[in-house]
Design goal:
single chain; Arc Repressor Mutant, subunit A; D-Maltodextrin-Binding Protein, domain 2; 3 domains; 3-stranded parallel sheet
Length: 282
């Protein structure tokens, strides 16, 4: 028995009612390519065309007319069932795609904080590659992508936020959970207490970097002209305290060393700063 997702039927009805893919995308809160992908998916599931491509604008085939009529009834029944929840608003599900490196670190905690403020919104998170994220956005399979890229993505997005990434490295830590051949030593009590090192850095203003750390004694910052202006002083604050203030000078030796280590011509850093983390007052 073929099961047709209701979101595909709702998209079809919206396209027919709005007489436009673009207007339907706006009313549904998705991109126009996502609407097109959902219509194609619906036609693939049904096995026949529902839109008449030979006619101008949005026109239905005879079978398409029947599909829309049945779709309206199905959506009406679906919405009536959803209203049986005692007047409580239906929980909205947001499908999020994240890089694998972020899956177990920052994103889950951020989503948990979001849920505390908006408990009626649920998340379905998937760790995948950047290419799969773009494909999922185009096809309407995901709603939000958190990605790391070297250039602006070539996709029509409903909303797009871009932050500059800062390259950091932990050089020394306090005693933390021990690693072994089995990834971590299960005999280490610090694992039970979740005693891990954490280091987050972000550019909060031109030539101003804020760093948050936990159980880190020393770390490195790697910078280039895309991140800061070398002609102006740089300010780095760690855990709210001043760590560095002054000018930095690009070094050819640093540039070549980092290029050899990273094997990536797109990530060249002529400045390497090593900073000590002050102990937080107890």
């Amino acid at each position: 028995m073929l099961n047709i997702p209701t979101e595909l039927l709702r998209t079809l009805v919206s396209v027919v009612d709005q007489r436009s893919f673009t207007k339907a995308a706006h009313s549904l809160g998705v991109t126009q390519p996502a609407v097109s992908a959902q219509i194609k998916r619906l036609q693939f599931l049904l096995g026949y065309e529902i839109l008449d491509k030979s006619a101008p604008g949005v026109s239905l085939t005879p079978r398409g007319e029947m599909v829309v009529a049945h779709a309206r009834r199905m959506l009406s029944v679906n919405d009536q069932i959803a209203q049986l929840s005692g007047g409580q608003p239906t929980a909205q599900t947001v499908r999020v795609a994240i890089p694998g490196d972020f899956a177990g670190v920052k994103i889950p905690a951020t989503l948990a904080q979001f849920r505390k403020r908006w408990p009626d919104i649920r998340f379905v998170a998937t760790a995948t590659s950047f290419e799969n994220m773009l494909r999922g956005l185009r096809q309407g399979d995901i709603d939000l992508a958190v990605a790391v890229a070297n250039s602006k993505p070539s996709i029509e997005a409903h909303h797009l936020w871009i932050d500059q990434a800062v390259w950091v490295r932990i050089d020394a830590t306090d005693p933390i959970a021990a690693f072994s051949d089995d990834l971590v030593s299960k005999r280490d009590d610090r694992i039970k207490r979740r005693e891990y090192a954490r280091l987050d850095a972000s550019i909060v203003a031109p030539n101003r970097i804020e760093v948050r750390s936990d159980r880190v004694q020393r770390y490195s910052l790697f910078l280039n002209e895309q991140l800061i202006d070398f002609s102006k002083p740089l300010v780095v604050r760690t855990n709210g305290q001043m760590s560095f203030e002054g000018s930095v000078t690009p070094s050819l030796e640093t540039l070549l060393r980092e290029a050899r280590l990273r094997h990536d011509s797109r990530q060249l850093f002529p400045v390497h700063i090593v900073l000590q983390v002050r102990k937080q007052p107890s």
